[in-house]
């Protein structure tokens, strides 16, 4: 038995060599991943705000003249009289629904007077299915959109525990608000040592997705499952969730599809679940859908493709049409007017940051790769040119043998032009790419072998004069790189370069 377990362990280790978890990806994590999360949350926030199909709390016009600061409203919260309680709850609901920003400020201020605990006490004492229970849940659902208050709901009162304990008892009138509360609380917390609760909630939400006749509730249930998979810390998710996410991405309903992609993306945080995704065929529809989708769905779908490219091993990528599909988008003028081409380049960028085998696979996947990338580098939109530059820079530095096959006259011109932009990070990437090209010392590989050397191509592309200018850049990294290229590859005998005062010491004591 021990031998079998040991053998399986070694097989798993071998299977995971070369894979990159989503949590280990270094590419612009802080900005791009955060931006994606913000866009996703904005999408679901808009859906929740619309509450399409949600039961109304009633006519709110008579309650809009009050604020949460009014003594009568506060007294009602702490009263045992249900009529007074209901009046106060209607004021809260009216303020939060009609003037959410001001109402959240008022709510936060009134937390000092115990309004949060009072609302929770009312909820615990209310009857299942009563209007009082419905109003409190709607208030919590509206107020939880505020991140700070959502955190208070998660840590200041036992709301999550209460909702999970009573989950089976909520009727269709209240379940939508319950799902909103849970998904928003999970956004700001992680789940530790609550495996039974998490798995229970996943199963209940799956049933709601499959059985509820109300589209907005199905969307909220799928979003809650995503939030659980994102917040859970232990590797306890059932493999069956892969098939469920696969069913979601082929749904006719946009919120379900977005949740399906988002669930898939969270699964690449562990080898077990990532392997389960790769082993299934449930992600395959994304390859066809990526050609036609747009907006929030496009964001999530291409993030899934990036995760696949990063996590898959070279032979798995070769066996799938993922590269052919990305090159089709990149080399098709139909996609010039939108961001699809940029997103397809981002997928290729994942390969350019992978192993040597992945980089070689990227280079071999399109016999016209050099011409396609050179054209985009010179004529694409700025963000497309940047992304092409990132790919080339990674390939030229980490796979020097690719230089004669990926660099031509237009490539050198494109890199040289990017030395002139007012964006230091882009200039640094261009300098690093140019340094790798000049270090090669050869010339572009063509059938005729009649191309000039890279150094002559650089001279024709005005690289020399641009480097002379960049040496005086206030950015230390830019200035040092420009100086290094000039001294090592352009004119090793020229010692007359004038450096800014703050760089003179750096040249005497180079950075290690």
**Which CATH class of one domain?**
Mainly Alpha
Unreliable spans: 502-512
Query: How far apart are the first and last residues' alpha carbons, in Å?
Result: 52 Å
Provide the CATH superfamily of one domain.
Leucine-rich Repeat Variant
Beta-strand proportion: under 5%
Helix-and-strand structural type: mainly alpha
Per DSSP E runs of 2 or more residues, the count of β-strands stands at: 0
Write down the overall mean pLDDT.
83
Q: Please state the second-level CATH architecture of one domain.
A: Alpha Horseshoe
Shape: elongated
What is the CATH T-level topology of one domain? Leucine-rich Repeat Variant
**What Rg is obtained from the alpha carbons, in whole angstroms?**
29 Å
H-E string: HHHHHHHHHHHHHHHHHHHHHHHHHHHHHH
Question: How many separate helices?
Answer: 30
Classify the helix fraction into a percent range.
55-70%
Protein name: IBB domain-containing protein
